[in-house]
Automatic annotation (TrEMBL):
<dbReference type="InterPro" id="IPR050618">
    <property type="entry name" value="Ubq-SigPath_Reg"/>
</dbReference>
<dbReference type="InterPro" id="IPR001870">
    <property type="entry name" value="B30.2/SPRY"/>
</dbReference>
<dbReference type="InterPro" id="IPR013320">
    <property type="entry name" value="ConA-like_dom_sf"/>
</dbReference>
<dbReference type="InterPro" id="IPR003877">
    <property type="entry name" value="SPRY_dom"/>
</dbReference>
<dbReference type="Pfam" id="PF00622">
    <property type="entry name" value="SPRY"/>
</dbReference>
<protein>
    <recommendedName>
        <fullName>B30.2/SPRY domain-containing protein</fullName>
    </recommendedName>
</protein>
<feature type="domain" description="B30.2/SPRY">
    <location>
        <begin position="69"/>
        <end position="271"/>
    </location>
</feature>
<dbReference type="InterPro" id="IPR043136">
    <property type="entry name" value="B30.2/SPRY_sf"/>
</dbReference>
Length: 310
């Protein structure tokens, strides 16, 4: 059975729901909506195997999302000491990932940012930031949103930049499954919980060249996710997603396949998108900053190992 027919019941259900008139809700968060764009039921350039599609659907049905969590105290200390340099990329455990990830403190990495290099044998895999870039239990006073960038040195395959809540099927690119959004740089389509072919996003990008910088940003007030290209902000890709904000933790998510080389910058170096360098967009001013009565939380936060495996 094709993906189109598998997804048809949900699409019809969504259509029926949209026809119900429930009246204005002035206090409700913005309703999720994609920006205009043609919809594709199959990938324009690449198509994932049907079994991987089915396995991911089953994974999301069986494995619940993690609730938002407080960071362990050593992680908060690291943020306070090093700022955005505290963010890195987790080393994937999947054998699908063939490559290396160099953190800023690695002796082989001459950069302040994370370096990712993959080989030709690398299959579709999603890698995540070591800490959330949007954390439901932390405050956003004085913050407009959060933002990060990748600098592409080589893309002989696929790179996709976006966000995701955990756990997420690691063999799927961002945007294909639940609570995940992505901009796929092989066909320039955008995805949010879209296991089909995505939607057209921009006509401003025709191909990826070495040195291109693509960014991903999220605005708290509107729930809008947008992308940037070489310092220019593109239109909102999706509006009203990840709301209410306090209900989940959201991680940077990058999909990769094939022979690729890129760097991930959470703010350790200046962003190409100049507005992202302002405090209102920096991730370290949000994650790790508690609001409200501190007595609502335990005095002693769990250790890293306890938090990781809880």
């Amino acid at each position: 059975m094709s993906r189109f027919f598998r997804s048809l019941p949900n699409k019809l259900s969504d259509h029926r729901t949209n026809q119900i008139n429930i009246g204005p809700l002035s206090d409700a968060p913005p309703e999720w909506a994609p920006a205009p764009g043609n919809t594709h039921y199959y990938g324009k350039i690449n198509e994932a195997p049907g079994k991987e599609y089915d396995d991911a659907e089953r994974f999301c049905e069986v494995v619940p999302l993690n609730p938002p969590r407080l960071l362990p105290s050593d992680a908060v200390d690291k943020i306070n000491q090093f700022g955005c340099v505290a963010w890195g990329i987790e080393i994937p455990t999947s054998p699908r990932f063939v490559g290396i990830i160099l953190s800023p403190n690695d002796s082989k990495n001459v950069s302040k940012v994370v370096t990712v290099q993959t080989g030709r044998e690398c299959k579709d895999v999603c890698i995540f930031s070591s800490m959330p870039i949007m954390a439901g239990l932390y405050g956003i006073q004085g913050k407009t949103g959060v933002y990060y960038e990748i600098c592409i040195n080589r893309m002989d395959g696929i790179i996709a930049i976006g966000t995701a809540c955990k756990p997420y099927p690691e063999w799927r690119l961002p945007g294909w499954n639940r609570m995940s959004a992505g901009f796929h740089l092989d066909d320039f389509c955008k995805f949010f919980e879209d296991a089909d072919g995505g939607r057209d996003y921009t006509n401003d990008m025709k191909q990826i060249r070495s040195g291109d910088i693509v960014g991903c940003g999220y605005e708290f007030q509107t729930g809008s996710l947008f992308f940037t290209y070489n310092g220019v902000q593109l239109p909102p890709a999706f509006t009203g997603i990840y709301l209410p904000r306090h209900a989940q933790d959201v991680f940077a998510a990058i999909g990769v396949e094939g022979h690729c080389n890129f760097q991930v910058n959470f703010g350790a170096e200046l962003f190409r998108w100049k507005e992202g360098n302002e405090w209102a967009w920096r991730v370290e001013g949000h994650v790790g900053r508690l609001t409200g009565d501190p007595s609502n939380f335990d005095d002693e936060l769990p250790s890293y190992q306890q938090a990781r495996f809880s």
